[in-house]
Write a structure and sequence with these properties.
The complex is a heterodimer of chains A (about 210) and B (about 120).
Chain A: H1 3-20, H2 25-48, H3 53-85, H4 94-124, H5 130-151, H6 156-173, H7 178-197
Chain B: H1 10-24, H2 32-43, H3 51-63, E1 67-71, H4 74-79, E2 86-90, H5 92-104
Antiparallel strand pairs in B: 1-2
Helix pairs in contact in B: 1-2
The chains are: A mainly alpha (about 210), B mainly alpha (about 120).
Amino acid sequence: MSAALALAIGMTRSWVTLYTSGLPPELRDARRAEIDSDLWEHQRTAEFLDQPQGETTLQLLARLVMGIPSDVTWRLEAAHSARSERSISMNESGTMRSLVVVGVVVALFLIVTGMGAVVDALVQGDLASGQAAFGAISVLAGAAVGSGLLTSRRNPLLGIGLVAAGAITVAAAWYWMLMITIPVGIAMVAIAFFRARQTGWPRGAGTA
Amino acid sequence: MRRKPGHLLPIELAILEVAIRLRMQGASQFYGFLIAKEIKERQEARLLTAHGTLYKALDRLQKAGLLESEWEDPLVAAQANRPRRRLYWVTAAGEAALVPTAETAPRPVAQPRRGLAPS
């Protein structure tokens, strides 16, 4: 297996791990197992058809990137259902929901930008350059910020930690835009913090 | 935006149609990648359906009672040396959901056959 194909598979698995984190175990494990099975079938079918590994890599990346909006909405719906089932009575304010949506959009921007950089490096056949690494870092940072925002209510410490880690990584990687990345990063951490506070955290009510 | 109850998205219709066609060909159950591959071939698309789009649609169809699923027997998967598949099948409600769509779809215009002179 080529390094690029392994990277695409790893990125897909990492993304699935991130957006399913914090869900009930049966839901989380089922989605992860289903995507694992899909990745395996995709690889074997491509081998059977003698498809070039570069093409398989691009197909996997396209399936990953184009499915991200659906993954995010599925995650929100699944988390909402899980919360309803557990009868958590505290409702989230509309303002906070809007702020979280804005934060997730920013995170998606980082992911898509990073994917673009990786795909461009793949197309140019220049994986050794810093561009691919920069892209991968942006994807991971975006995924950390997005998943941190989404999990900050259910698991405040993990959520705030992920958002902070993602924001610091972005500030370091995009150092020439510190005037923008630092305030935006602080805003993201603040959203995660106040979202967590709505559940009563840190007095122990945030771990539903 | 909320969807009307009973309204199926194009991806959901494609899944049901392809699943029913597979069953007519003898495959009563299907799994995610198989349906993505069949949809790609049927629509002559360049790309397979994205993971998120596909599995979200399968989830919605199942919640609506149009599909059912079960995990494959671990022994079968182990013998084939691959991860377990989640196997889906179309329910009676799933078949019924396609009927109104088929009835309201525009019918192909009949073309006159060549070489046949009007009697």
